[in-house]
């Protein structure tokens, strides 16, 4: 089936040392998007008038630039920015109103415009004051507001092939990521957009330090921070030999959402699919050991365009993944303890949302079991679909091939990009070594939003 794709010549090798360093606020990602938002956040026009539409239970607001918005009574009462409605503190923000006691038929007792604010007296004695800017940023009738608000979820991605990502690959300096919030923001935003970004100049403890900057490292059955090097009692294919590995995503054997699993000699724990992975090159190989990445979202779209039947099959049929073994961790007594695991999960190779957008890729041939959640007559076609998906992954035009040097760090989306490494040779006294860890998207995106609030970033979104 590879002949149907007509692969081009050998893919291009990218040396990180030759990738232009990305800097902070002077070269913020999404420049056009920011410009559009900055325009929308210029000095807010003043309130000019209002109409109380009793039949629709809404207040129509007009600004002096001609724009207007309709605000339902119930929404205005529910979102009133006052200390009776919300608890505000340095540690939290939460709504005090409970739906059990909330009057969804509430009607204002008095409505007025004073000092460029909408003032409403409510039957419970609460007096709400909504500034012109507050109302403008939350106008339910404004399509730009809806577009802007959707950005809070940081779901925008840009798919890539090897040529496209090589032209915009993001590389940041370790000290800047550690010390400059603007750089940390842009580094994490690059990962949201492209699924991958690099850091250079990492110190031996770089994984722990970047993990602390991001927030929470996600613990796995390999611990929090792990080391990758070839060893005799390998608990993972990456440690088993210096031979080339196949393209894969990590941990297809784990479930998402989280579920309780059992483990010998350990109490029950919570595991989920680990959504981002970070690796730090401590000692590169003497020869080989290149890191290869492919955008699984891009591959899925190629499959959808050229082989729709197989795309649909991989979005529908669940594959089973099994992972059994053990790893050694330091216990609370500072002594090594053996952790035995027996993971089992089912996943579709390609997951889409309700609109058909590809939102997750999960595939690992080493852990794939014999069981398929489908009719027996579909099994042959499933193998053809997996083979074709894999063939697209190995198209040189799709592969980002990176030579990582000592101190280089990569953070990538494990449920978007498939990754591997080439075979390598190292001397016994200087083995190839990496350290790494995992993160969840929730923690990474939370950090981006927190940084935007802290930095008063143009893309910051109102909380209340």
Trace the largest sheet across and list its strands.
10-11-24-15-27-12
Look at the structure and give the mean pLDDT. Answer: 85
In terms of quaternary structure, the protein is single chain
Number of helices: 13
Summarize the amount of helix as a percent range: 25-40%
CATH superfamily of the largest domain: Clavaminate synthase-like
What is the CATH T-level topology of the largest domain? Answer: Double-stranded beta-helix
Strand content: 25-35%
Characterize the biggest β-sheet: 6 strands, mixed
Secondary structure category = alpha+beta
User: What does the overall shape look like?
Assistant: elongated
Q: What is the terminal separation in angstroms?
A: 54 Å
**CATH class placement of the largest domain:** Alpha Beta
Annotated CATH architecture of the largest domain: 4-Layer Sandwich
Unreliable parts: 1-9, 24-39, 257-272
Alpha carbon gyration radius: 26 Å
Q: State the total count of DSSP E strands.
A: 27
Number of domains: 2
Keywords: Carnitine biosynthesis, Dioxygenase, Iron, Metal-binding, Oxidoreductase
Pathway: Amine and polyamine biosynthesis; carnitine biosynthesis
Pfam family, one: TauD
Organism: Ascaris lumbricoides (Giant roundworm)
